[in-house]
Amino acid sequence: MLTPLSQADSQRLIALFKEVGYTETNLRSYLGSAELPSSQLRNQARLLDHTREATPLNALLRWFWLHIPQAEAASAPLFENWLLPLLVQCGLLRRDGDNLAPLAMLLPYDSFLVASDHPVAIERQESEMVLWPNPTSKFLSRFAVRRPSRATLDLGTGSGILSLGAARHSELVVATDLNPRAVAFTKFNASLNGVNCIEALVGDCFAPVAGRRFDLILSNPPFFITPETGYMFCENSMELDQLCRRLVKEAPAHLEEGGYMQMLCEWAQIEGQPWEDRIAEWLEGTGCDAWVMKGLTQNPTEYAQHRIRETAQDSSHDAELYQGYMSYYRKRGVQAIHDGLIVMRRRSAPNWVRIEEVPKTPTGDLGELVLSTFAAMDLVRAMENDEELLHARPRLSPHVRLEQICDQVDGHWHAQSLTLRLTSGFPFHMNIQPLVADFLATCDGSLTAEDAIHGFAALAQAPIETVRRECLAMLRKLIERGFILANPA
Predict the structure, then answer these.
(1) Among 44, 132, 209, 255, which is disulfide-ready with 346 (CB 3.0 to 4.6 Å)?
(2) Together in a domain, 48 and 91
């Protein structure tokens, strides 16, 4: 177990790692890619060769990236005399004869230096291993709402990277985990990075924070849908996706009015039940507005193979494991497994739920995207009455672009299609007609929707009743999707 550092020692250590180039940006170029050593990738030889010279950076990489013991006598001359004793004192290194052996991995992430277990812990099947900053946690971090928070909860904290990020805009962050080793790593990482507002607690689900409420809850729980419970960081003992359902049901009691819960999860699609209905049931009666963004869908055969490859290093048992997985899914009628992000906001009013499949690779400020999407959904519902929307002043988002595709015919360009596209957030798009494009060009916030519609009806030489009905329906859809911002008159 690691011993948290003093503020002075943390500052010295962080400064040294940055000075020698142990940073996220530098390592990506220095190593050719920032991939971790892996027996599956078979990259150990390349990484060893790349770090063969006796330099401070290579010594740190061999300890804290490659997980290789090094002779103390050969390493000591590379550093100031305070470093190695400090690394031993805090538990990052231990003396093993004449060598110094690493006890943790150190990864630079988002200006932080994060300690975790090394990937060799999976090869050793260590059930309480603490995962390094991984793609799912990084993805959730990108979506995290970054408005000021009195108190934020990081449920299932792991190494604590969501807590570190949330500390930038939170007076207090409470980090919880069922795994005591994860809580210990989070405490160490908070001290290492000079973050003083993180309270780390051991316990299951919301039990450690009974009776407390938060402005923001972030959770990347152990959501794998597997018959195994070998690794605490990714697997749980509840049936199928019931842990995620439990968190959705229990979260509202721990949210302040207007507070957000953001959770990555997986859910099963059961024979005879649309996947949307399963998620909708989780959200019933929660007193929360919700936006469910479905991402990847896998059939059980693909999913089983993928999970076995991630968690079982010894391929000699693949057939047995695979049959166990498939028996588990077939008995429960699992037809597919979906992953996605659920965002909930507690609100004492008639609630709305938006469940959809979203495009991949969103861009821009995704925390702001969450806030603007909830605001847009509120606005659409506040303007369900046509008169209210007619008096609003629609304005195209600055992230909207109009794309035109032309074909060359008889020596001239002829327009074949017009596409309205968002360049930030999810890349939503829709095909529109030239007259509609002309109408949207007038939506700059200076005209009410009623004035813009009357102008469009005159241009199209169409009955005003028909144009009004179709334009209002289109405006509602464009507001909901983020193409249009509507300011009240």
Answers:
(1) 255
(2) yes
Assigned domain for 109 exists: no
Judgement on whether residues 215 and 282 belong to the same structural domain of the protein? yes
The domain that holds 358 is classified in CATH as 3.40.50.150
269 shares a domain with 398: no
Residue 272 CA, chain-centre distance (Å), reads: 30
CA 151 to chain centre: 20
- Greatest Cα pair distance in the chain: 90
User: Which CATH number belongs to the domain containing residue 418 in this structure?
Assistant: 3.90.930.60
Report d(CA 277, CA 57) in Å as an integer.
Answer: 53
**Which pairing describes strands 170-177 and 214-219: parallel, antiparallel, or unpaired?**
unpaired
Which residues span the domain enclosing 408? 382-487
Cα 144 to Cα 110, 166, 354, 489: the distances in Å are 14, 8, 18, 32
Query: Hey, how many other C-beta atoms are within 10 angstroms of the C-beta on 275?
Result: 21
Is the Cα torsion angle 10, 13, 14, 15 positive or negative in sign? positive
Q: How many structural domains comprise the chain?
A: 3
Domain assignment of residue 152, yes or no: yes
Residue 106 one-letter amino acid: L
CA 31 distance to own-chain centroid: 25
Cα gap 151→135, rounded to integer Å = 25
d(CA 374, CA 386) in angstroms, rounded, equals 20
Q: How large is the C-alpha radius of gyration of the chain?
A: 27
Q: What are phi and psi of 411, to 5 degrees?
A: 80, 10
